[in-house]
Specification:
Blueprint lengths: L20 E2 L11 E6 L3 H10 L7 E4 L29 E2 L12 E2 L21 H11 L6 H11 E3 L23 E3 L9 H10 L17 E3 L5 E2 L2 E2 L2 H5 L2 H4 L4 E4 L3 E6 L3 E2 L2 E2 L3 E5 L14 E11 L2 H11 L2 E2 L1 H6 L6 E2 L5 E3 L3 E9 L6 H4 L2 H14 L11 E5 L19 E6 L15 E8 L6 E4 L10 E3 L6 H18 L8 E4 L1 H4 L4 H11 L1 E2 L31 E3 L14 H19 L2
Parallel strand pairs: 1-11, 2-3, 2-16, 3-11, 6-7, 16-28, 17-18
Antiparallel strand pairs: 4-5, 8-21, 9-10, 12-15, 13-14, 15-16, 19-24, 20-23, 20-26, 20-27, 21-22, 22-23, 24-25
Bound molecules: flavin-adenine dinucleotide and 2-acetamido-2-deoxy-beta-D-glucopyranose (NAG) (9 copies).
């Protein structure tokens, strides 16, 4: 997370002349009304905008607070952002003090440009287990969300492409599970890591705990395998590059307005006794997080639906600002409650992450690049000239998924016996958001991430100013069960590091990890150094029709309202034990099909 940031080189890819990308509210044709107004251009919103505008008779407006992704080098060259450096295109949030982190607050990045967090994320692409999708079907009472029924949407999203170095990928994935005709480009790493063969050796030496998994996107995730990533051979593939590509942006019935910060949605009367919300209020004044603005707001109406896709933080905040949420919390801030629903903003869930660092005996790590600006500039020039070299990769080298054999804290949180409790990620260098990069040395990181936490947190309003960040409390490691899972994961990593496969490679653990030799010291290491892997979900959860809790029906329509739907990370009723971007794209694909069906369009 230490490569310097290259905001706009502006010289890398030709910027298409795009007729329907608008930068200011006044540029939108005044007379136009829209069938659908979509709020937020991330994983969910870009899919909706694309699919709903396939029918030339359907008009769609997509509103995004951030700028365009075009020409943003950090959102193009895969290795550059390394997770955190893209602050120019971020909301810059922090969490409330986290008791599970010994009271620390942590940075909480969220992408703020076309593509949303898919333009700034680390690009791991995992579908989640078949048990996970079958649990979504059970929890919502909608068989449409089952693994079997979601297959067609998974394949619509995926376009498997060659790796940058063109190597033979036989033995690194199973092509029979994949599509080469979908939208988001997916590929395997395109530049070798010095330890690739040691990973394969590890899966043989420790085959009982860490078998080789040819394809973790087959529905069965356990074991170690090659990472599939949203990389179009050499460049990031995002919701913006895929679903808002020039050929779609040129549709006359799709309008995309950037720099449009939505401040709330407005009631537009009642439909069969339920409040309708078919108006969106926004401003194109450029207001930073924590700022204020009295600039005039603009209102735009949808004739059919307003669809919120502002993500797990943004969507909850917009609902609360609009009077949809817990009445007590809203009235304390002087916001009139239109629909009292205590589930809005509740149950925020995220994956805690810990960077376990090791000194290694190699000078082929990316530390050579992160610690040396001259070499970094050389590698950027190589990427620019040939689309090859170390920068075609994300920081992720291999992924592994595992369960803890015994759990003294019960009940189990996973979707089933072949769904992981935690993940390990191998990275060919020093990858941490909580430990500063040393000035020299060569490193490997084996990240542990808790993927099936029991803790639940919340998003609440701190003020009624739409430009203030809400209180974000993911309640990281907020239960003894979660701490136990993280301790088990670190213990498993120490076993891997001690395997013969790593004998002449790993020199020793980094100081903080080396000191974690007693149960108390291990706990303290985790509390001091853990952070987030950036996966918040669940703040406007789907629940069965008629349930006494939840925010949306299983089709994303907001309960007890009319004309309002949500399709983004906030509607997942449980966090998937996987990197979530693929799941959110799939929500978008099925969500769009449900919208088309509901309106016959
Ligand atoms: C640093 C980082 C690394 C990650 N790494 C991975 C990974 O490797 N693999 C993976 O699967 N997932 C990863 N994720 C998570 C993944 O990107 C998200 O889960 C996914 O993008 C969520 O989709 P979404 O549509 O819910 O929200 P987003 O993609 O975040 O999109 C929400 C959009 O709404 C806009 N918006 C918000 N509020 C407003 C408003 N008031 N008005 C107008 N627009 C608004 C935002 O600017 C944004 O464009 C990562 C995330 C981050 C931040
Ligand atoms: C890739 O490798 C496999 C197995 O070694 C082999 O069968 C296949 O022919 C190779 N493909 C190409 C295109 O070389
Ligand atoms: C790939 O998956 C298919 C379908 O499940 C299976 O029949 C085949 O054996 C798998 N191939 C390999 C090499 O495992
Ligand atoms: C939007 O809808 C509201 C409520 O129905 C109405 O008062 C307003 O005039 C509409 N605005 C536009 C721009 O159509
Ligand atoms: C986040 O911080 C960066 C760097 O300071 C800044 O450029 C950007 O505008 C900030 N984003 C917001 C939404 O305030
Ligand atoms: C949180 O989620 C659980 C199910 O996981 C549900 O029973 C509970 O009602 C939710 N809480 C709120 C406030 O919605
Ligand atoms: C790598 O390290 C070895 C010895 O540790 C050294 O001989 C060699 O020159 C180094 N290579 C580079 C490219 O720095
Ligand atoms: C930094 O990289 C340049 C270019 O590859 C190289 O010449 C130089 O020796 C490197 N500096 C250090 C301190 O390794
Ligand atoms: C990228 O390549 C273009 C020509 O294709 C060149 O003009 C530009 O200087 C290069 N930029 C960098 C950073 O190497
Ligand atoms: C919440 O608002 C208060 C002022 O009302 C401010 O001091 C505090 O920093 C805010 N908290 C966050 C997390 O923004």
């Amino acid at each position: 997370m230490h490569l310097s940031s290259y905001p706009v080189l502006g010289l890398l890819l030709p910027i298409a002349c795009v007729a329907t990308l608008y930068e200011r509210a006044e540029e939108l044709p005044a007379s136009t009304s829209y069938d659908f107004v979509i709020v937020g251009a991330g994983a969910g919103g870009t899919v909706l905008a694309n699919r709903l505008s396939e029918n030339p008779g359907t008009t769609v407006l997509l509103l995004e607070a951030g700028p365009s992704n075009l020409g943003v080098t950090d959102a193009i060259i895969p290795m550059l952002p390394q997770g955190l450096a893209v602050t120019t295109y971020d909301w810059n949030y922090t969490t409330t003090p986290q008791p599970g982190f010994a009271g620390r607050s942590i940075g909480y990045p969220r992408g703020r440009l076309l593509g949303g967090s898919t333009s700034t994320n680390t690009m791991a692409y995992t579908r989640a287990s078949n048990e996970e999708w079958d649990r979504y079907a059970r929890l919502t009472g909608d068989e449409g969300w089952s693994w079997k029924n979601m297959q067609k949407y998974m394949l619509m999203n995926e376009k498997f492409v060659a790796s940058a170095d063109g190597h033979n990928t036989t033995g690194q994935y199973n092509a029979s599970y994949h599509s080469t005709t979908g939208m988001v480009s997916i590929s395997l790493p395109g530049y070798p890591h010095p330890f690739d063969s040691r990973i394969i050796e590890t899966t043989k030496e420790l085959s009982e705990d860490w078998p080789f998994n040819l394809d973790m996107n087959s529905g069965y995730m356990l074991g170690i395998g090659w990472p599939q990533q949203s990389i179009d051979t050499s460049a990031r593939s995002s919701g913006a590059t895929a679903y808002l590509a020039a050929e779609y942006m040129s549709r006359p019935n799709l309008h995309v307005l950037v720099n449009a910060h939505v401040t709330r949605i407005l009631q537009t009367g009642t439909d069969s006794g339920k409040p309708a919300f078919r108006s969106v209020e926004y401003t194109t004044a450029d207001v930073p997080t924590g700022g204020t603005s009295t600039a005039a707001r603009t209102v735009v109406n949808a004739t059919k639906e307003v669809i919120l896709a502002a993500g797990a933080i943004g969507t909850a905040q917009i609902l609360l600002l609009s009077g949809i949420g817990p009445e007590k919390e809203l009235s304390a801030l002087g916001i009139k409650t239109i629909l009292n629903n205590p589930s809005v903003g509740a149950n925020l869930t995220d994956h805690p992450l810990l960077s376990n660092l090791f000194y290694v005996n190699s000078n082929e790590t990316y530390d050579s690049i992160t610690m040396n600006g001259t070499l970094e500039a050389e590698d950027i020039a190589i990427w620019n000239a040939t689309q090859q070299g170390p920068l075609v990769n994300s920081p992720l080298a291999h992924l592994g998924w595992a369960r803890v054999p015994n759990n003294p804290y019960g009940p189990d949180t996973t979707a089933g016996p072949t769904t992981p409790h935690y993940e390990i990620l191998f990275s060919n260098g020093f990858l941490s958001t909580t430990t500063p990069l040393p000035s020299s040395g060569h490193f490997m990181t084996i990240v542990t991430a808790l993927t099936s936490p029991a803790a639940r947190g919340s998003v609440t309003l701190n003020t009624s100013n739409p430009f203030d960040q809400p209180n974000i409390n993911p309640n990281m490691l907020g239960t003894d069960y979660d701490m136990f899972l993280m301790e088990s994961a670190v213990t498993a990593v120490m076993k891997i590091a001690a395997a013969d496969a790593w004998k002449d490679y790993i020199i020793k653990p980094f100081e903080d990890l080396a000191a974690a030799t007693t149960p108390d010291a291990l706990k303290s290491y985790i509390q001091t150094k853990a952070a987030t892997i950036f996966h918040p979900v669940g703040t406007a959860a789907m629940s069965p029709k008629g349930a006494s809790w939840g925010v949306t029906h299983p089709d994303g329509l907001v309960k007890h309202t009319a004309g309002l739907r949500i399709i983004d990370a906030s509607i997942l009723p449980v966090i998937p034990s996987a990197h979530p971007q693929a799941a959110i794209y799939f929500l978008g694909e099925r969500g769009a099909a449900l919208v088309k069906e509901a309106h016959g369009c």
